[in-house]
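Dig into this one:

. . .
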Amino acid sequence: MAKFEKANSVGEWLDQRLNTTALNKVMMTEYWIPKDINFLWAMGVLLATTFGILIISGIFLMMYYKPDIGLAFDSVNYTIMQEVAFGWLFRHMHGVAASVVFLVIYIHMFTGIYYGSYKQGREMIWISGMLLFMTFSAAGFSGYMLPWGQMSYWAAMVITNLFGGVPVIGDALVVWIRGDFNVADATLTRFFMLHVFLLPITIMGIIGVHFYTLRIPHVNNQNADEFDYDEEAEKYLAGNKKESKVIPFWPVFISKDLAVLGVFLIFYFYLVFFHYNFAMDPVNFDPADNMVTPAHIYPEWYFLWSYEVLRGFFFDIAGFKAFDIGLIAFAFANGIFLVLPWLDRDPKILPAHKRPAFFIWFWILMVDLIVLTVYGKLPPTGTNAWVGFFAAVAFIVLFLVLPIVTKIDAKKRGDVWEN
């Protein structure tokens, strides 16, 4: 058994048993971050904060929410919004945070793509981040169903129907997910359990993995410079802070993060108090009715791009049904980002503005995603349907040609893969 001396403080007592000094060094004061980064590297802290807001506001909402198809709508729109003190505030905070968290995720995600922060040793950072995106998406969809309004019900009907396209087991899978032959009470309670327990626990676990993966290859920087972190850390600790290319996470880097967080919270609470309606579809203020289909069914804004890829293929092609083609395209769109590190065939980590062909590819992708998002909310008729079709095809083609595009940049610089 280890020998313990009498501790002179609570901190010393904990340090003897948990080695908190070493932990503090590894995770805080000697966790080195590149100096050459900008505010876009603060998105991780914004995500952690927004997730915390979702958890806290969700706990208060859960105290009054009733996961029953006969009570759910009234528990949200009457009990929480009108009877519970400040219930409206917690609902607004939760609804706005659910939308804003995806805005931050997309900024974080495309910053990583732009600066090449997904390859050459950083593959696990990227994969864990994409798994977080998928679990947040599942949490967003399951939460969208809970108010049990018209759009909640019919969005659940559309999404669960997608699983019917799985070969052999599709029909049985739909029934298993719903817990019934239709979207019903069993479906609501299933999604309630996913939203308030299983998915938050999963997200917390993946966040832990994501943070751990950052510790190994270190954080990327604006110019993708590679340097010896230990050597630069020694310079910093020796007092040569100006020449050192790194700064400690605590207190230097976190102070910059907190400055960005302060600006973000002003923006967030402005939306909470004055523009919360953007996060709440007006159709969803009508109680769910399985006998009345809304004129136009669509998901929340952060799912619109993938939804448009799904419905973009509105006609049969070469004997394949439109539904099957759309389902394959939808699976492609949601899975292709996972394998991005292996689609990029450029052997060097460089920001997009130093890779001319990739730079063009990146901004075409951004424009295409905006088009998909805009048209995903419009009725799929006439010109809208054709714009959605060509945008969906463009999205798929962009990723199919990515290996060629990145090889062109590498070839122009004279770089080749070393086998």
The mean pLDDT is 92. The first helix runs from residue 10 to 18.
